[in-house]
Amino acid sequence: MGKRNRARKPQATASTTVNTANTEVHKLDNALAAVDNLIESESSSVFGAMAEKFKTAASSYNAASEQQKKAASESFGNDIQTLVGELKKLVEQNKQVELDVKQSLARQKQLEAAQEELKKKAEAEKKELDKQSKELLASKKKIAEDRAELAIKLEELKEQELDAESGFAAKHIEMLNSFEEKQNKLRESLEEKKLKLEKEIEELNKSKQTLNEAEKTLLDEKLQQLFAKEAELDEKEFQLNQEKALIDRKRKQAQLTVEEASSYKSSLKDEIENEFAYQISSLENQKASLEKQIAQYDQGEKQLLAKLSSFKELERQFEGTTPQEVVKQLNHYKQTVNTLRTQLDEKPSEHLEQNYKELKKTYEALEQEYNNAHAELQQNKVQLTKNKMSVIELEQIHKQKQALEKHNQLLKTAVDQLSADVDDLVNKQQAKTAFPALLVLDSKLRAKAITESVPSLRDFAKELQHRIAWDANEQKELYYRFEDICLFIAGLAMSRLHILQGISGTGKTSLAKAFARAVGGGVKTISVQAGWRDKGDLIGHFNAFEKKFYEQETLQALYEAQSPAYSDRPYIVLLDEMNLSRPEQYFAEFLSALELDPKDRILTLMTTGQPNGPENLIEGRKIRIPENLWFIGTANHDETTFEFADKTYDRAHVMELPRHKNTFEIDKDHEQVTYSFDSLEAAFEKASNKHYGKVEKLIKDLDKSEFSKVLERDFNVSWGNRLERHLIRFIPVMLECGSELDFALDHMLATKVLRAGKATGRYDTEREDISNLIDALIDFWELQKFDTQPDACLNLLERDLNKKSSL
Q1: What is the pLDDT of residue 195?
Q2: Mean pLDDT value across residues 82-89
């Protein structure tokens, strides 16, 4: 801007000067100012160098004398002014040309991008066509193989049909004809699909050709525009040459006397010629570049057309079938083959049937192998996930373990100290109480046991047989019949007193212990001694002088059974060799208490209570017989033992174990379990309610039967409410365990009514009485429509009948 202002000052001064002699000089100054403005405004254009030359000329002019300026001002100033205007026009034209060139380059890039998109699209279509051609070739190959296989099978079928009977052969021929008709129809449909595909490919090619023609038209238009621009540039070049000639002519006419002006004109001419020559060469280079690009476009167009022709050839090879139609056709062929295989399988051909069986076995084996592999893969995936989680958990557990070890060390020290203090307190307390052993149980058995519910009685009986049969701790096997297990469970529901009879070695003691082990209950073995007379021999007695109760194992068992640790678990007090002494003496109070309601089953230990007594004693001097406790006594009958009285037999559940064990395959995979007493009692109650009507009807029929009348008339034997209560509790449990009604009733009658000493084994009965009783029993069994005979009762009666016959 500073240069422009300085250049315009002489113009302003010239406008205010009145001297007409200096008018031409001021015109030259104005021309030089215009040149200065051109230098500033167009310094970045292609004519910047020319403007610099004008500046140099202006400097030379300024350095000339006034006479020289006046002499050259008239012609030279006007020429320069005219030249500057023409140069401005050329600059504007050059800008327009540059803008046109930029637009042509942008359009060229757009064409190149469009060409690249067409190339990519063509390549993608080529890949898709290649893929479809491969799939079609594979399908054709498969179809050819299927056709060859079908041809072979058809030949085999034809050979078989020649050997078959006329009717069978005619049927096969009809089936083959129908198959050939279907095959011809499939071929016709295939041909139609091929023609349809060829039409689609032709339409696609037409659309592609249309697209290529449009692009070619666009390219021709662009080239025509470029040619027009080129022609325009040539015309401008011609005009520039004419203007150059005019300038040269005017320069010659100037006749500058100054040597600097002549050199300036010659240099100016050279510069202008060089610039125009440079501009012309640049435009020629652009023209050559555009012609080269046009040739490349033509070559690319030829390549694309060649590719399209090759694609058309590939599409013709597809024979008008799309991949989806080929897949559908293959599925149809597969279904046809399966139908033919089914028809072949139905034909009476041993060879084909054998092949089918072998193929079926192979298929099943492969399917099993696949299922196994898939299952193994899933397991491996699950195991991998677990392993990953385990690594993280192990790291955390390791850290926690280190912290817990230190914490445990501190706790161990504190617990040892606390244990020592507790032992001191217990010892001091025991010295002041009459029941030191029971107080120890209070401190040991405070934790309540975690129990599980008993399953259905049928499942419980089956499971119990296997749990009893295998003792994992002692690695010992104990075999008991399933019916004996059912009788034992039903006896638990019926009575709190059991008597297990049989010769030595039949597993009486082992059964009671094994049951407690199998259900996770408690057991205490009491060895009955000969000479026991009262309950003191069984539970202990109080020494008034020492103020101490001598607590026997039975008393501790009664107390332990009602502690928190065992209150919801079955508990067994095993009276080994129960009849070495008379149970009616040492067990008399228990026999009476077990007949009472559970809340009233209380034994008195002392006349007065003692301070600091155990928690579960009543008033410090009485103990309750807990409901979850059973007394199970084993009995041998020889010269060293006593016979049980009727009161004991009537209150007890009696079982006689067989001499020979019944072996079976033991399931040793059962985990240790602790069953709840409450759930077991609930299962008994549920069974009793479920079958109450059936048992009640049976009791009524038994009361009205001839069997009952014969017993009462000839044997003076009848039953009361106790037997009916036992039947109502015993028989339903037997039924739920899986036993039959007649087997349960047979056992109860044999052990409660017909046992030795009551209806059999008597000296005051006659042989005829026993025969009548047998007949009445068999008649009752037939009236009840039982499937089996009362074997246990009949064995007792027939043995007694044989004894009567031998007398």
Answers
A1: 72
A2: 66
Backbone phi, psi, residue 4, to 5°: -65, -40
As beta bridge partners, residue 752 has none
Dihedral sign, Cα of residue 33, residue 37, residue 39, residue 45: negative
Residue 31 exposed, middle or buried by CB count within 10 Å (0-12, 13-18, 19+): buried
* Residue keyed to tokens 């049951």: 515
Q: What is the pLDDT of residue 317?
A: 59
In sequence order, what are the residues at sequence separation of 6 or more whose Cβ sits closer than 8 angstroms to the Cβ of residue 48? 39, 42
**Which pairs from 198-202 meet CB under 8 Å and 24+ separation?**
198/315, 198/316, 198/319, 198/320, 199/320, 201/312, 201/315, 201/316, 201/318, 202/312
CA distance 694 to 690: 9
Distant-in-sequence, close-in-space partners of 442: CB < 8 Å, separation ≥ 6: 563, 614, 615, 616
Give yes or no for a contact between 179 and 340, defined as CB atoms under 8 angstroms apart.
Answer: yes
Q: Is the pLDDT of residue 262 over 90?
A: no
Question: Rounded to whole angstroms, how far apart are CA atoms 388 and 390?
Answer: 5
Classify 449 as helix, strand or coil: coil
DSSP one-letter string for 248-271: HHHHHHH---SHHHHHHHHHHHHH
Chain segment 713-726, per-residue pLDDT in tens: 999 998 889 999 99
Range with top average pLDDT, 132-141, 164-173, 774-783: 774-783
Say if residues 591 and 584 touch (Cβ distance below 8 Å). yes
How many other β-carbons are positioned within 10 Å of the β-carbon of residue 477?
13
User: In sequence order, which residues have a C-beta less than 8 Å from that of residue 793 and are 6 or more positions away?
Assistant: 746, 749, 750, 754, 777
**Distance, CA of 584 to CA of 692 (rounded, Å):** 33
CA dihedral 460, 463, 469, 473 (to 10 degrees): -100
Query: DSSP for 180-204?
Result: HHHHHHHHHHHHHHHHHHHHHHHHH
Q: Which two tokens stand for residue 632?
A: 């199970």
Asked if pLDDT for residue 264 goes beyond 70, the answer is no
* Residue from 526, 751, 788 nearest 656 by CA: 751
Per-residue pLDDT at 750 exceeds 70: yes
Specify the DSSP element, H or E, that contains 541: strand 540-543
pTM as predicted: 0.50
pLDDT at 358: 77
Please list, in sequence order, all residues whose beta carbon lies within 8 angstroms of the beta carbon of residue 304, skipping any fewer than 6 positions away. Answer: 118, 119, 122, 212
**Three-class SS state of 551:** strand
How far apart, in whole angstroms, are the C-alpha atoms of residue 638 and residue 653?
21
How many Å apart are CA 481 and CA 771, to the nearest integer?
31
- Strand (E) or helix (H) holding 527: strand 522-527
Q: Do the Cβ atoms of 562 and 622 come closer than 8 Å?
A: no
d(CA 646, CA 586) in angstroms, rounded, equals: 16
- DSSP assignment, residue 673? -
Mean pLDDT of 285-309: 70
Q: Phi and psi for 257 in degrees, rounded to 5?
A: -85, -20
Asked if 124 contacts 309 with a C-beta cutoff of 8 angstroms, the reply is no
74: burial class by Cβ within 10 Å (0-12, 13-18, 19+)? Answer: middle
Please work out, in degrees rounded to the nearest 5, the angle formed at the alpha carbon of residue 577 by the alpha carbons of 576 and 578. Answer: 90
Measured distance CA(26)–CA(562) in Å, rounded: 138
Q: Which two tokens stand for residue 276?
A: 């125009």
What percent of the chain stands above pLDDT 70? 63
Q: Are strands 470-471 and 476-477 parallel, antiparallel or unpaired?
A: antiparallel
Residues in the chain: 807
Q: Is the pLDDT of residue 179 over 60?
A: no
User: Mind listing the pLDDT tens digit for each residue in 148-160?
Assistant: 776 676 666 656 5
Instruction: Tell me if 578 sits within 8 A of 654, measured CB to CB.
Output: no
The per-residue pLDDT for 17 is 42
